[in-house]
Write a structure and sequence with these properties.
Helix content: 55-70%
InterPro entries: Rer1
GO cellular component, one term: membrane
Organism: Ilex paraguariensis (yerba mate)
Number of strands: 0
Distance between the termini: 98 Å
Shape: globular
Largest sheet: none
Strand content: under 5%
Protein name: Protein RER1
Family: Belongs to the RER1 family.
């Protein structure tokens, strides 16, 4: 009889912990969803977090391996952010593809890694890295200038390859320089100028 009662109590405690975890996860998701339209404020917050992390690493004079790993992870995320969803080199598809000739129909650029997921992954990476700086087991002694030089070379080679890919398939992963619809006002003013 005692075993049954003890099991029920243990099950109730586990259920209450699971319910609490589920409630917290829903609350977190609710607030995360509320930040979606506020891209500028989200990136400002991430920049502040990155600055705090950089100041901590500078002040401690350590955790260069953690910072190097963070840099490699951010570089990997950046590649996904700048790459199209469907790469014409790797997988020909029936869906939307990048135009390769001037006569091709315009198809919008769809990222492999959307901006919100890119921001969320970077912010989470900075938070985890910041927490890691409080544990001395992650402070592996290394000669940091070599890591920095290696990361810069890796960044330059990766971005060169990405830019060559952009030029080859004629796409720009940003809205800078793209034509935007400005409404009836500009078309009315242009038709009015033709009539004069």
């Amino acid at each position: 009889m005692e075993g049954i009662g003890g099991g029920a109590t243990g099950g109730t405690a586990t259920e209450s912990v699971n319910q609490w975890m589920h409630k917290m996860s829903r609350l977190f998701q609710f607030y995360l969803d509320k930040t979606t339209p506020h891209a500028v404020y989200r990136w400002i917050g991430t920049f502040v977090l990155a600055s705090i992390y950089a100041l901590r690493v500078f002040y401690i004079q350590g955790f260069y391996i953690v910072t190097y790993g963070l840099g490699i992870y951010i570089l990997n995320l950046l590649i996904g952010f700048l790459s199209p969803l469907v790469d014409p080199e790797l997988e020909p598809s029936d869906g939307p593809m990048l135009p390769t000739k001037g006569s091709d129909e315009f198809k919008p650029f769809i990222r492999r890694l959307p901006e919100f997921k890119f921001w969320y992954a970077i912010t989470k990476a900075f938070c985890i890295s910041f927490i890691m700086t409080f544990f001395s087991m992650f402070d592996v002694p290394v000669f940091w200038p070599i890591l920095l030089c290696y990361w810069i070379v890796l960044f330059a080679l990766t971005m060169k390859r990405q830019i060559v890919h952009m030029i080859k398939y004629k796409y720009l992963p940003f809205n800078i320089g793209k034509q935007k619809y400005s409404g009836k006002k500009s078309s009315a003013s242009s038709s009015g100028s033709r009539g004069d």
